Amino acid sequence: MFGRLPYRVQIPLGLSLAVLLAAILVTGIAARVSAQNARQDILSLLDKAVVLVSAQVRPLLVADDTWRVFALLRDTAELMPGAVTGQARLAILGADGRVFAASDPTQLETGRTLLGGTWRDQSTPLPSAITERQRLDRGDGSVVMIDPIRSEDGQTLGFVLTEVDAAVFAPDWPSLAKTALLAIALAVTVLVPVGWWVGKRMTRPVERLVAVIERIGRDDPRELRSAVPTTQDPELSRIGDAVSQLMGELEQRKLAEDRALSAERLAAVGRMTAAVAHEINNPLAGLLTATQTLRLHGGSDDIRTRTIDLLDRGLQQIRTTVAALLPQARMDDRPLEPGDLEDIVTLVRVSANKLPVEIRFSMDIDSALRVPSAPLRQVMLNLLLNAMKAAGEQGTVSARLEADEDQVTFCASNTGPALSAEKFRNTLAAESGRDPRGFGLWVCQELASHLGGRFELDATQPELTRLVFQVPNREAAEETP
């Protein structure tokens, strides 16, 4: 969940949590040290009580005054922590290790042997083995100390036994917890806001860098480069330098794209010019032949009328072809007529006679034609010219126009080398505006797509190449202005 937060929130929050955890840790350690110091203070107080008792009990032991020893122990034990609740005791032992007197006779009865045996499930040393303080720490935390009492000439008169239960050394956790909570509250109140402010100050350059990066691709790189923040932090400086370098590279890339776009536009103009020249040159050869026929045989009214009609339809086709290349041009076009196929065959016979190639054509029209003539004439002209080139010398080209109420189909086949489906697809891909020498098939495909039809290779006759252009037999939908 912490990793899902924004970076500008993670750092302040992380610093605040670090401050809080540090305050808890320091307070816990301080409480533990306080507990240890309290234990040391209790042991130090016990040492002072033992010194006091040892100094005052010597003459009483020599005098064998049990009552006065008991009174001394009772009064001194009241100064020891836990004595009031019966958790701390003092006792004077004789030189033989027996209890001479005790501050609590109910637990340390007079005459009981404590040294050289077992006391509270723990072995005690022999009186002769005690030459200095003996400290017995029990597993439950309680402490037993045995100090020898010596006369002025070094003789052992007896022993001072100090016994303190574990409860006396137990820390005052409620008091310590109250102090710890107060310290944590003060740390949170003072240090957490400071940590949050420091974190926000640290992330401010990062926020500015993020704002600059978000604007990349929308604003000018030169303006963004000046908005990159400067900082003394080495890591943030490296990030800022990388962002500046990125924007510099984007600026150079934009300039390169502009140059490439300009070159592409020039190339597109060249391809369009080649396409226009290709589509106009196709009918021009036939029109020039028609003018030659008119010049030689213009005296005949029938030939002159037919030739003039052919010239008119050919020129109208060129006009419509040029207008189709202008996006804003709107030209009215007449429906296709059966005689249009004869016109196209007439236009291409000049080229057919030069190869030579035999051209055969037929028609099967069962319904009125409701398709525009200009694109269909263009398709028929392109397919016949390509079929003539593919047929080669002494080849045969067949053209057939079919129409019913639903479809208008034009098929062009040749007896040249068969065209495979893969080569047909590759030819269309290669001719898609990038190779003006083979613009014809690509134009047929685009016209079929525009008219809602299809243009494909007929694979049912593998011995020859047969291309099929089919469109719905309806008027072309008007373009939406």
Summarize the structure.
The chain is of the alpha+beta class and 481 residues long. The protein is 55% helix and 15% strand. 24% of the residues are buried.
* Low-pLDDT segments, ≥5 res: 433-438, 477-481
Topology order in helix (H) and strand (E) letters: HHEEEEEEEHHHHHHEHEEHHEE
Number of helices: 11
The share of residues in extended strands comes to: 15-25%
Task: State the strand order across the main sheet.
Answer: 2-1-7-6-5
Q: What is the radius of gyration?
A: 58 Å
Helix/strand class: alpha+beta
* N- and C-termini, Cα separation: 55 Å
Helical content band: 55-70%
What's the overall geometry?
rod-shaped
Seen as an oligomer or otherwise, the chain set is: single chain
Q: Based on DSSP secondary structure assignment, what is the total number of beta strands? A: 12
Overall mean pLDDT: 78
Largest sheet: 5 strands, antiparallel
